[in-house]
Amino acid sequence: MTNPRSGLVRRSFLVATGATAGALALTAGCSTGTGADTGAKNAAAGPPRRGGRLRAAFAGGGAGETLDPHAANLFVDAARAKALFDKLADYGADLAPVPRLAERWEPNASLDTWKVTLRKAAFHDGRPVTADDVLYSYRRIADPRGTFRAKASLEPVDLAASRALDATTVEFRLKRPYAEFPNVLAAFGAYIVPEDSTAFDRPVGSGPFRFVSFTPGSSLLLERNDAYWEGAPHLDELEFVIATEESARVSALLGGQVHYAHELAPASARTHEGKGRIDVVRLPGSGMQGFVMKTDRPPFDDKRVRQAFFLIADRKELVDGALSGAGEIGNDLFGKGYQYYAAELPQRAQDLDRARALLKEAGAEGLEVTLDTAPAGTGFLEAAGIFKEQAAKAGVTVEIRVGNKDTYWKDILNNGTFASYRSGAMPIESHISQRLLTGSTTNATKWQHKDFDDLYQQAQATRDDKERAALYTRMQRRLYDEGGFLIWGFADWIVATAPAVRGVSDKAPANTLDWARFDKIWLA
Predict the structure, then answer these.
(1) Hey, which end of the chain has fewer CB within 10 Å, N or C?
(2) Taking Cα atoms as reference points, which of 325, 323, 345 lies closest to residue 334?
């Protein structure tokens, strides 16, 4: 067996969201602190306290918002879905899958059939969660008529051939050997809903909170699910409120109208951290920051030019300048700190002399290159300006071209030669399969090598964990030496809370299991 590792809704609260402000008194009897001492603060608070309503402010999606968990795209969608529903698995802090509704999973010898056993859990209406619910949910996500985000993650599964062996056991038949199949169970948006669910205006899930009321673009009110399989939440109620502008979320938190503000800018965090009015929590490893070099066209079809650009980058200057220091330096590999990350490779440092020598060898002295960027990600414009200055020291002229932030990701996928890039947290295997194989649909670096594809397929057919890890290391060493991702940093994801709030993890990258775990949070 494979043992997996481990009230009424206030429709408005801010002038910024088109409504009048109304103060919400925070629970008294709290201490102050910052993200650096979140764990100590939680421990000092003693055992969790039951009761109260916590209000959490997120950026929203307007009046067209839905509570359909399979349609989740925004962070607020994911946080609301997590409160109402469950997945079979989720990602731990190292992006390895952790069991949730699935109690365990076991592959056959050829890794093309997996048996998943469900734990005892119930939906909010009392019905047990069954294998039929799982198959219905996955088939709904995979329906070609739909546009659900988890569809791509489910591609390896032959859902027509998969079946329920009994009420608590699902047999998944796969289209090919897939050692990392548990990543499918943890995929973003792969939530389990009751069989035949089609409407989600009053959603019924198996999550830690039950639905009370919803006003799209404004507020969702939930109450504690006392029958939750992992134990009832500490809070009586949880309310999600929408404040799309970051300044509005910070103002609401400072004004006592909310207890939790999601996604602060590094500058805001630096302004308020340690002042005692709010607590800043930094979630490390949440976002990769870098540039893509398209390896199928000049000048980056010559690996010596790519290697020179690796050596031009002063990573600390980029993290300090573009992220206001809210992150850590990268090493041209995705997934620092995640399962399978090749941490043994030496940290790359700026070496302008060697960079100039490589460019000369490649016949690229006096190189001029256009860097596409846009205000589509935190620090993009700042990083572009910093790298331009760094490149000039190596004799490279970088022209910055600022594009449309709304179409940026589509524009740079196939066009241009050099562009700003970022990514959220995902397993290293998913990063490779989605971005680095010949047939990958989001292969922005145009890295297309059959021998690399073969290594990936070999890893997926390898049952032994150590042997599979060694194959991932080989792939990463190749990318480190000559890949098209110049990964200069990993940004912290920043949230802030009222000093009364306890239980917020400071070790969970965004979109992992312990991110937005409101069932584990309490008010001191």
Answers:
(1) N
(2) 345
Query: What is residue 319's three-state secondary structure?
Result: helix
CA 474 and chain centroid, separation: 25
If DSSP codes are grouped into helix, strand and coil, which group holds residue 17? helix
**How far is the C-alpha of 126 from the C-alpha of 230, rounded, in Å?**
15
3 has pLDDT over 70: no
DSSP three-state, residue 90: strand
Q: Helix 465-482 vs helix 450-460: angle between axes, to the nearest 10 degrees? A: 160
Biggest alpha carbon distance in the chain?
70
Pairwise CA distance, residues 409 & 182, whole Å:
28
Residue 428, helix vs strand vs coil: helix
Give me 106's structure tokens: 């076991």
CB-based contact 133:121 (threshold 8 Å):
no
When pLDDT is averaged across residues 335-362 and rounded to a whole number, the result is: 97
In 3D space, the residue among 241, 257, 253 whose CA is nearest the CA of residue 277 turns out to be 253
Contacts of range 79-82, beta carbons closer than 8 Å, 24 or more positions apart: 79/240, 79/262, 79/516, 79/518, 80/220, 80/240, 81/189, 81/191, 81/207, 82/207, 82/516, 82/517
What is d(CA 475, CA 376) in angstroms, rounded to the nearest whole number?
Answer: 29
CA distance 165 to 155: 22
Residue of 266, 268, 236 whose CA lies nearest to 249 = 268
* Tokens, residue 330: 């990268």
DSSP codes, 363-424 = T-TT-EEEEEE-TTSTTHHHHHHHHHHHHHTTT-EEEEEE--TTTHHHHHHHSSSEEEEEEE
Secondary structure of residue 509 in the 3-state scheme: coil
Beta bridge partners of 257: none
Q: How far apart are the first and last CA of the chain?
A: 42
Angle between helices 428-435 and 450-460 (to 10 degrees): 140
> b vs e for 463-496, b when ≥16 Cβ sit within 10 Å of the residue's Cβ?
eeeeebeebbbebbebbbebbbbbbbbbbbbbbb
State how far the Cα of 119 lies from the Cα of 101, in Å rounded to an integer.
6
Q: What pLDDT digit, counting tens, does each position of 81-135 carry? A: 999 999 999 999 999 999 999 999 999 999 999 999 999 999 999 999 999 999 9
CA pair distance 504, 515, nearest whole angstrom:
8
Given this model, what pLDDT does residue 337 score?
Answer: 93
Backbone φ and ψ of 33, nearest 5°: 175, -175
Task: Give the rounded distance of the alpha carbon of 290 from its chain centre.
Answer: 16
DSSP state of 77: H
